[in-house]
């Protein structure tokens, strides 16, 4: 029986290995992590991450050919194929701080693999890593090989949270990069045979190592660029009276462009986009490509601008102050159908409003109060470090209240901000909400999910990203 071990039981490792176990019953899959709490959760009825369809798959395979364990060295030693899916946070100090990926955890994993291995291994990069990481890992393993042969493969993930299981079942492509040597090609074939259990052969793309590593960064950079592009247009739409949804629809009908990732919003979030672009910027700078680095930097700058613009619009619309006012925040996750809050634009929006002394009442159907308070207590990039390096106890914020009902969040509020496109927000009884809010009552739609005309008929003053401005807002332009 082929044995697979995945180091790292997070958003990538857990779902990916669960699907491999489900689709390949003849393969034994072990997911290992040093976090006892995380592994305990994977072995419980309350999984550590929320992803539609994931729970059913885990329950069908767990204990049969899918195992979650803290016995890291044991499972690594026994495995034929080792996926490494550890954190690669953005460095917060030293060379490349604020841009370069920190490969401390990757290096530790590689050294541990070398220490415990007793037979030849295929080591697969599953984390998002800078180009040439495989070369560094290869050197560590080779210089500590004790006669054991290692083949390094790059197999980046292209999952979208909220649809991860669907993406794994029916992927656009599986990308496998390896050395162009007999050993490297044999390793590629071995991993290809795993995916071939359910993925058509024409969707499995094989490349050299460096192309695979760079393709992941490039894909995320291109997607983030589209979001920043339409968000830049949303600002121009507001200034000219155009409607960004109409512009996006017209542009998206061009088959050369396509309609995906053209929805204007308060900004992009998630664990990958910003981190991968920063890594790309650093790689460009290290290779003397200053102009290319500046180009990609602008994608992040527009994203930050969009979040700041949203906060400025809220404050300026409400008589240029939100001090002491209750603002309801509906949605804290970075997108619907996930409880993930990493780099969610809600963090910057909430911090901006708290900075003006607003009182926030937050509701999200999948994010806990502890997570919200922790996120608002952290410094930038801290979220990507292991739990033991994060704040132990979230700062007590008297201006912050987390509730488990949208109506409780909005009761007595002066304004409400829609920051995640949860489906339930589209069907709220806004008449009921309006009746229980302070007047004038404001709605700031950061996801363009409400019918602004209907809300105006109820009595709301409405701001929707990139839409023609409410007469009230024209008189109170956003502060630059």
Folded structure, characterized:
- With 480 residues, this protein is of the alpha/beta class.
- The chain has two domains: 3-199, 3-Layer(aba) Sandwich (Rossmann fold), CATH 3.40.50; 221-474, Rossmann fold (3-Layer(aba) Sandwich), CATH 3.40.50.720.
- 43% of the residues lie in helices and 13% in strands.
- It is built from 19 helices and 14 strands.
- It has helices at residues 13-23, 36-42, 54-61, 72-78, 104-116, 133-143, 164-169, 182-195, 209-240, 244-252, 273-286, 290-317, 345-355, 369-377, 406-410, 423-426, 430-435, 452-458, 471-474, and strands at residues 3-7, 28-32, 66-69, 81-84, 121-125, 150-154, 174-178, 204-208, 326-330, 359-363, 400-402, 415-418, 442-445, 461-464.
- The strands form three sheets. The protein has a six-stranded parallel beta sheet, with helices on both faces. A six-stranded parallel beta sheet has the order 11-10-9-12-13-14, with helices on both faces.
- The longest helix has 32 residues, at 209-240.
- The termini are far apart.
């Amino acid at each position: 029986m082929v044995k697979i071990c995945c180091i790292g039981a997070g958003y990538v490792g857990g779902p990916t290995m669960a699907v491999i176990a489900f689709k390949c019953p003849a393969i034994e899959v072990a997911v290992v992590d040093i976090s006892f709490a995380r592994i305990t959760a994977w072995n419980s009825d309350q999984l550590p991450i929320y992803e539609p369809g994931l729970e059913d798959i885990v329950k069908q395979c767990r204990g049969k050919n899918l195992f979650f364990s803290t016995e890291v060295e044991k499972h690594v030693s026994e495995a034929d194929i080792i996926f490494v899916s550890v954190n690669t946070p953005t460095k917060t100090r030293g060379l490349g701080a604020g841009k370069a990926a920190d490969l401390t955890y990757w290096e530790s994993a590689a050294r541990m693999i070398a220490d415990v291995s007793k037979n030849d291994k295929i080591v697969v990069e599953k984390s998002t890593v800078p180009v040439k990481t495989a070369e560094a890992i290869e050197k560590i393993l080779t210089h500590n090989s004790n006669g054991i042969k290692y083949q390094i493969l790059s197999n980046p993930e292209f999952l979208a949270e909220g649809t991860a299981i669907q993406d794994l079942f029916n992927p656009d492509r599986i990308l496998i990069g390896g050395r162009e040597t007999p050993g490297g090609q044999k390793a590629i074939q071995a991993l290809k045979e795993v995916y071939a259990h359910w993925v058509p052969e024409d969707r499995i793309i094989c490349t050299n190592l460096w192309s695979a590593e760079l393709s992941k960064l490039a894909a995320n950079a291109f997607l983030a660029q589209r979001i920043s592009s339409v968000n830049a247009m949303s600002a121009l739409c507001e200034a000219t009276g155009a409607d960004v949804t109409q512009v996006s629809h017209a542009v998206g009908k061009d088959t050369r462009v396509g309609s995906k990732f053209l929805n204007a919003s308060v900004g992009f979030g998630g664990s990958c986009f910003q981190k991968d672009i920063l890594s790309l910027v650093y790689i460009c700078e290290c290779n003397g490509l200053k102009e290319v680095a500046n180009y990609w930097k602008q994608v992040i700058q527009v994203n930050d601008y969009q979040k700041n613009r949203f906060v400025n619009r809220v404050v300026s619309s409400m008589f240029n102050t939100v001090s002491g006012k209750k603002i309801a925040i509906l949605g804290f996750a970075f997108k619907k159908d996930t409880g993930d809050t990493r780099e969610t634009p809600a963090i910057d929006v909430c911090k901006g409003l708290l900075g003006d002394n607003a009182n926030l009442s937050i509701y999200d159907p999948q994010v806990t109060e502890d997570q919200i308070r922790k996120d608002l207590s952290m410094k930038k990039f801290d979220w990507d470090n292991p739990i033991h390096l994060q704040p132990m106890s979230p700062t007590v914020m008297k201006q912050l209240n987390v509730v488990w009902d949208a109506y409780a969040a909005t009761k007595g509020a002066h304004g409400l901000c829609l920051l995640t496109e949860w489906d339930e927000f589209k069907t709220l009884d806004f008449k009921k909400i309006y009746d229980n809010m302070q007047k004038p009552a404001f709605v700031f739609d950061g996801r363009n999910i409400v019918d602004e005309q209907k809300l105006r008929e109820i009595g709301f003053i409405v701001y929707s990203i990139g839409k023609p401005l409410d007469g009230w807002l024209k008189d109170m332009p956003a502060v630059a």
